[in-house]
């Protein structure tokens, strides 16, 4: 099949960017979207042009590195999938496909389709952990965690930190990402001691990074490749309010 | 040079405790006077960096991804082993040790493997304390499954995302130390050389992948936790960025490379579809607990299936060959990976492979679904089935999955002693980057265990001994000529890539190398094929340096440039792997030399001559490497032919 691509090209964070047209013939429907870009990059190199820069690593939907905004949707038309899990069979012969980077103030563009998501790391550094040193743990079976609780924690812990939730949100809010981490640790007994403090610190860092406010439209959860539920935002709000009553951090 | 493994004296079960007691300690107040560099923040690196920082050392950590949370460890699906014996099914530290030594076809060190089994139990405790949501029973106790042919249930798991959850645990510990100011993290930074001065590792040279800046970092010790080199085959289950560069450049600076030809081909991956394919996807081994592997009994039926004239479900029971169950009645579909892979290949070589390419066998869940119901199967493997359907566009609940072996893991790596130190003092290797514990074949769920054992529970002890011995003053500044020279070399190589202005993209060379390695140094190897491969690789190398095309500049994000360096190193490593495979005139584990097999086609070891670790020493550009042998001593297990019949 043939596709017409409009791809965002931007030399670096300070340069102006624009959409550039490319045409690819001979696309196989079994190719993944990223393999299609690989083919295009091979052709560009042969012509002496620079490859399109984009983040990717595992190519199986788990590392959270790939991050393309395709035809107006984070990770493209499929739901519950990352860009690297998208295949060309989701498109038709002759389609025009617009490919852009995540757009958010807290995610500045590095080059072309690649953005800087280190804000997420700093939000985790603010408190997304249980304070325990190596070697000081007790036997794992001494902490009983009933299956439904473990399952709930796992549902939240599945977040891959891709940032699609931010890209999908009109306010570029990071609430779903932050809520997933807060919720994962808040439901487990190991994480409860620090639950409120954690919520407070992570939310403060989220604000400091320039992510927008949450207006609870749910766009994030729809585009989230791991289908992280909005319920976690409700839990985050509860923990956060609790922290305001007994504020220790700020 | 004398290869000293430094395995402690004494009874097996006491070696590690005695050794720990004998190690020098760094006084708590002095720890802050030492700087440690950790390259790589996967399971091994993140756990090491966090634990060392908690002890008080100043750590600098590096990774090439945009965040430590994205290391390739994140992709591990199946689980992590530990000798907890929570299921009361006869597991013990000794049994885990024994299974691992046997599974590795008796090419690993007893002492190392025993220590691994011993600390495995602490790993689970540590991870649970961090909040890793392992699977649980209704009563709240941890759940286990049997995995990778083990006859006890000792595998802990978090759905099909065990690696992700373990890595996020280690990443959270690391993040806490970054916040504490004890770790300085350098993401999107690639290590391009190790600096050795006066016989010791003194630091590294890196390239900032966003700005292209070349920089030196000095420290008292350097830990390479940079993962495996499976991508030397181009197509593998590894992440696209996994590479050998850090290990290879250390090798060229004097670190010996151990058993480079020991690579693991995993039996259950989604088969190759086309030329454009960039990576292969693993279907977790746990699927073999319920799936039955088969091909058509006759070539004629297989031919019809390949042409699309017949469907798998059309074939009657008696027309199917469940070849693993037939050949290995005791273990059936659960034979170790090397055995399962080789058998699948043999079936396809006989012309009984399926899929349009003829390079696939079936993994069939029909019986399991009939027995346990679709709900149960869905609960166990739902996410894997979904993943399969997304990629192949076929519903595995209705038609059998198609699978084929793919490169998955590298048992070889930098040679290290019992303290995880390479042959360069002050340079350590942890996790998949070292050669240590898996011998010639790794059992399922034991790589995660090894990475975390090395990082959480081994290096915090053994590193202290070295640091206490050299003392805080024994550090070299980045102004030392050794650093300047290394920086100049790195820049020179980069300029060479950019100025060659040839005709072929880097990927073309990587694919070509992959073809050569897979064909001649893959699932089965011959002296003749290996000799041919060596010539082909040398020709490829010459062509690469003359005709490679890298567009763009150094002073910017340039993924073609990053890749050029990695592929150049893979090409050189490929040649060493071929040398190693040629020198090892026996079959063991994943290394199958066609000349050395039993009458019924099983691997034929030669313990009298080859019960050693091959440690290769680099001698300079285009000079043959020198083979050193570390004899393996077995005092606690009896060497037998592995039998899974
Ligand atoms: C699909 C898949 C499934 C698996 N499933 C299992 C399983 O179920 N159970 C199991 O036990 N094992 C499994 N394994 C194996 C296991 O995941 C790996 O062996 C293990 O995670 C390796 O961890 P590591 O820390 O050594 O390296 P990695 O996780 O590969 O980390 C390497 C790190 O080094 C960095 N790095 C590399 N080179 C450089 C450089 N030059 N400069 C700077 N940084 C660098 C990277 O950025 C990264 O941070 C699986 C492997 C695959 C491919
Ligand atoms: S919540 Fe979903 S969309 Fe947001 S970072 Fe996590 S996985 Fe990505
Ligand atoms: S490349 Fe890892 S999630 Fe897409």
> What is the CATH topology assignment of the largest domain in chain A?
Fumarate Reductase Iron-sulfur Protein, Chain B, domain 2
The coarse overall form of chain A would be elongated
Gyration radius of chain B (Cα, Å) is 24 Å
Bound molecules: flavin-adenine dinucleotide, iron/sulfur cluster, FE2/S2 (inorganic) cluster
Helix content of chain B: 25-40%
Major sheet attributes of chain B: 5 strands, parallel
Query: Can you say what the CATH homologous superfamily of the largest domain in chain A is?
Result: Alpha-helical ferredoxin
Largest interface: A-B, 78 and 79 residues
Strand ordering within the main sheet of chain B: 5-2-1-9-17
| Broad CATH class of the largest domain in chain A | Mainly Alpha
- Helix and strand sequence of chain A: EEHEEEEEHHHHHHHH
* Number of continuous helical runs of chain A: 9
Computed Rg of chain A: 20 Å
């Amino acid at each position: 099949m043939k596709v017409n691509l409009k791809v965002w090209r931007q030399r670096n964070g300070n340069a102006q960017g624009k959409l550039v047209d490319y045409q690819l013939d001979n696309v196989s429907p079994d190719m993944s979207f990223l393999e299609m870009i690989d083919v295009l990059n091979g052709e560009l190199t042969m012509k002496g042009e620079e490859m399109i820069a984009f983040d990717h690593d595992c190519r199986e939907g788990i590392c959270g590195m790939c991050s393309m905004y395709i035809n107006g949707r984070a990770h493209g038309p499929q739901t519950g999938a990352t860009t690297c899990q998208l295949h060309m069979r989701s498109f038709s012969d002759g389609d025009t496909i617009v490919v852009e980077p995540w757009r958010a103030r807290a995610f500045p563009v590095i080059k072309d389709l690649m953005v800087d998501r280190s804000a997420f790391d700093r939000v985790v550094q603010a408190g997304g952990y249980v304070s325990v040193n190596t070697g000081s743990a007790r036997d794992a079976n001494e902490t009983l965690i009933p299956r439904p609780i473990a399952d709930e924690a796992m549902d939240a812990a599945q977040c891959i930190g891709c940032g699609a939730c931010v890209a999908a949100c009109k306010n570029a809010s990071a609430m779903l990402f932050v809520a997933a981490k807060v919720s994962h640790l808040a439901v487990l007994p190991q994480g409860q001691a620090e639950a409120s403090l954690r919520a407070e610190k992570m939310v403060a860092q989220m604000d400091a990074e320039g992510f927008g406010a949450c207006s609870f439209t749910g766009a994030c959860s729809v585009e989230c490749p791991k289908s992280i539920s909005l319920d976690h935002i409700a839990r985050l709000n509860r923990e956060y309010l609790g922290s305001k009553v007994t504020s220790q951090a700020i | 040079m004398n290869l000293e493994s430094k395995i402690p004296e004494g009874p097996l079960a006491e070696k590690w405790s005695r050794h720990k007691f004998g190690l020098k300690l760094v006084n708590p107040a002095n720890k802050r006077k030492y700087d440690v560099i950790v390259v790589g923040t996967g399971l091994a690196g993140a756990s090491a960096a966090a634990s060392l920082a908690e002890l008080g050392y100043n750590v600098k950590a590096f990774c090439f991804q945009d965040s430590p949370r994205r290391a390739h460890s994140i992709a591990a699906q199946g689980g992590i082993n530990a000798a907890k014996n929570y299921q009361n099914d006869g597991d013990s530290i000794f049994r885990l040790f024994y299974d691992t030594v046997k599974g590795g076809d008796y090419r690993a060190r007893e002492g190392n493997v025993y220590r691994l089994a011993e600390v495995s139990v602490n790993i689970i405790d540590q991870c649970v304390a961090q909040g890793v949501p392992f699977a649980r029973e209704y009563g709240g106790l941890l759940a286990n499954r049997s995995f990778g042919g083990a006859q006890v249930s000792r595998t802990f798991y978090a759905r099909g995302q065990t690696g992700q959850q373990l890595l996020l645990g280690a990443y959270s510990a690391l993040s806490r130390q970054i916040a504490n100011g004890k770790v300085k993290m350098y993401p999107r930074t690639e290590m391009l050389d190790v600096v050795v001065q006066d016989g010791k590792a003194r630091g590294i040279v890196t390239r900032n992948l966003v700005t292209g800046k070349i920089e030196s970092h000095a420290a008292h010790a350097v830990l390479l936790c940079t993962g495996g080199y499976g991508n030397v085959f181009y197509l593998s289950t590894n992440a696209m960025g996994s590479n050998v560069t850090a290990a290879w450049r250390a090798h060229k600076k004097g670190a010996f490379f151990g058993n480079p030809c020991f690579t693991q081909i995993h039996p259950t991956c989604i088969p190759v579809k086309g030329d454009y394919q960039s990576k292969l996807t693993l279907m977790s081994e746990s699927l073999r607990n319920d799936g039955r592997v088969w091909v058509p009994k006759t070539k004629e039926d297989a031919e019809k299936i390949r042409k699309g004239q017949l469907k798998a479900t059309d074939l009657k029971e008696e027309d199917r060959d469940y070849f693993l169950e037939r050949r290995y009645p005791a273990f059936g579909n659960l034979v170790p990976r090397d055995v399962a892979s080789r058998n699948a290949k043999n079936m396809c070589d006989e012309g009984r492979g399926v899929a349009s390419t003829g390079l696939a066998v079936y993994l069939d869940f029909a019986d399991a679904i009939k027995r346990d119901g679709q709900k149960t199967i869905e609960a166990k493997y739902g996410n894997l089935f979904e993943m399969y359907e997304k990629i192949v566009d076929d519903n595995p609940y209705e038609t059998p999955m198609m699978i084929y072996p793919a490169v998955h893991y590298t048992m070889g790596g930098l040679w290290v002693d019992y303290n995880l130190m390479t042959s360069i003092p002050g340079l350590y290797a942890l996790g998949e980057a070292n050669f240590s514990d898996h011998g010639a074949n790794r059992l399922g769920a034991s790589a995660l265990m090894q990475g975390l054992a090395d990082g959480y529970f081994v290096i915090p002890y053994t590193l202290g001994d070295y640091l206490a011995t050299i003392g805080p003053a024994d550090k070299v500044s980045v102004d030392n000529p050794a650093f300047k020279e290394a920086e100049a070399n790195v820049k020179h190589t980069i300029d060479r890539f950019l100025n060659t202005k040839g005709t072929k993209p880097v990927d073309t060379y990587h694919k070509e190398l992959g073809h050569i390695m897979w064909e001649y140094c893959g699932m089965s190897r011959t002296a003749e094929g290996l000799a041919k491969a060596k010539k082909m690789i040398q020709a490829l190398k010459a062509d690469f340096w003359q005709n490679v095309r890298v567009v763009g500049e150094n002073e910017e994000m340039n993924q073609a440039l990053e890749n050029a360096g990695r592929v150049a190193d893979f090409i050189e490593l490929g040649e060493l792997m071929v040398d190693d495979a040629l020198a090892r005139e026996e079959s063991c584990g994943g290394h199958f030399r066609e000349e050395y097999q039993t009458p019924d086609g099983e691997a034929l070891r030669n313990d009298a001559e080859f019960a050693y670790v091959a440690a290769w020493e680099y001698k300079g550009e285009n000079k043959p490497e020198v083979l050193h042998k570390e004899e393996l001593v077995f005092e606690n297990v009896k060497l037998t032919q592995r039998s899974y019949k």
